[in-house]
Every structure is written in C-alpha cells, then in structure tokens.
Amino acid sequence: MAKSVDEFNKKRLRSSNITVVVSIALVLFLLGLMGLILINAQKYSDYIKEQLVVNAYFDENYDAKDSLKIAKLEEETFKKVQTLAPVKKATYISRERASQEARKSMGIDSDALFEENIFPSSIEVALKPEFVDPAKIDEAIKTIKSVPGIVDVKNDSTLMVEVYNNLSRILKWILGFSILFLILAIVLINNSIRLKIFSKRFIIKTMQLVGAKRRFILKPFIVEAVVLGAIGAVIGLIALFGVWYYFTNQIGSAFVQDDQQYFWLILLVLGVGILITVLSTIIATWRFLKSNVDDLYYS
C-alpha cells in the first residue's frame, strides 16, 4: 500500500514538473520571439534609414582645360566627406554618370539631347541611422555643406521625416508588445510555480513543525526552480531558433547576422526563465512558511 502511494506521489510530482517546464518553455518561446522581432525590426529600420540619401553637389562651372585640377579637388573633397561623423557611406557621382542617369530616368537612349555633360558631379551620401532624425538632419546637412568644394546639399526632407516617424511608430508598438509579453511571462510562470508549491504546502509546514529552518526548507525548492527554469528556457530557445531558422529559409531573406545580439538574447531568455522561477518559488514557499496550519486548508 505504501509503495503504491509513493509511486502515485512520484507520478504526480513528475507530471507537475513537466507541466511547469512546458509552461515556462511556451512563455519564454513567445518572449524570445518578440525579442528576435525587435532586434530585426531595429536593424531593418536602420537599413531603411541608410537608403535615404542626401546629395552634395560640386560647382557647376566646368572647364575641360582644368579637368585634371578639378578631378583632384573633387577627390580630396570626397575623402573629407567620407570622414564626417554623420556619414555612413559616400558614393562619388561623376558628370558622365549623372548625365547617364538623367537620360535613363527620362527614357532617352540617344546622346543627341545633351551635347555635353551638363550635370554637375556630386556625392551621394547615406547618413548614419541616428542622423536620419528631424532634429539632427539639418545639422548633418550643414556639416556636409561646410566642406570646401561642396556648393549645395539637397535632400527630400519631407520623405525623411515621414519615414522616420513611421519607423519610430512601428518600433514603439513592437517594444510595447515585447514589454507586454514580458509581463505575461512573469504572471504565467508565477502562476505555474504557485500551483506546484501549493501541492507541497503540507510537506513545507511539516518540515517546519519538526524544527527545520526556513533556509533549509527553501534550499531544495530553489535548486529545483533553477533546474526547471533552465530546462524550460533551453527547450523554449531550441523551439525558437528552430522556428526562426525555418522561417528565414522559407522567405529567403537575410536577417540580423550579429551573433553578439543573439548571444545576449539567449542570456536574457535564460536569465528571465531562471529568475522568475526562483523568485516565484521563494515568494510562494515563504507564504506557506508564514501561515498557520489551519490556513493550509483554505489557501
């Protein structure tokens, strides 16, 4: 009879542990998924911002006799622009290339329209993402325009502001959902742990009544919480990166390849899983340690 009771308790304990681990894994999977989306959304936002270029123009006055001198001056100016703080990438556009692009945009194949290269050479500048900001864009343009040899800098400020506002709005929504999922993770994991500790409330109180210290009683529960939290986090991470790998292969798109960010995400998910599990275990166990024996029947 005693053996069957022990087997029943072991099965119930095993079932309880599996339920907790699965709950932790599912919650951390969703939390990690939001983390991956947030990381890639930020990188994709920066990528889009880098596509919004400004054009720095050289002097339109051009004399073929001074072509070598002008080419040298433009090369020096181009090198200076590349070193500026707001500049992510700079591309030199020659007069010949400017004319070719003008003909292409107008749908003209013949050179008859332009007897010579009438468009000035320029530098196409992709700004760093942090400078694609309505508060900083004017300062960045002034910095580029201050370089000797640059006579004018043009950009579509309306488009930049609109893109910046839309991207900021999207990132805020994603960040908001990430915080919401973090709160849900705390609540759901805490509830799972509380149910598990609730089933052991009589054991906790019995140990206390026979003279066991609170620290002694808490220790095995904390160790078990660390193990369950780690196992749940690992399972959640395996599922997360498995789904993410399949998803990226299916759509054939290059997402963030920064291993460091993935490393920090893994540490975050592991840390959240273990931390919430341990804290919930301590709080739930402490509640029964402070309660009276009669209260255990009404908890």
TrEMBL record:
Localization: Cell inner membrane; Cell membrane
Any single GO BP term: cell division
Main location: membrane
Parts of the chain that traverse the membrane: 20-39, 170-193, 221-247, 262-289
Topology class, membrane: Multi-pass membrane protein
Domain FtsX extracellular: 54-153
Domain of life, per lineage: Bacteria
Keyword presence, Transferase: no
GO CC entries: plasma membrane
Annotated Gene3D superfamilies: 3.30.70.3040
Signal peptide: none
Keywords associated with the record: Cell cycle, Cell division, Cell inner membrane, Cell membrane, Membrane, Transmembrane, Transmembrane helix
Record function comment: Required for cell division and gliding motility.
Name by which UniProt lists this protein: Cell division protein FtsX
The organism of origin for this protein: Chryseobacterium defluvii
Classification of source organism: Bacteria, Pseudomonadati, Bacteroidota, Flavobacteriia, Flavobacteriales
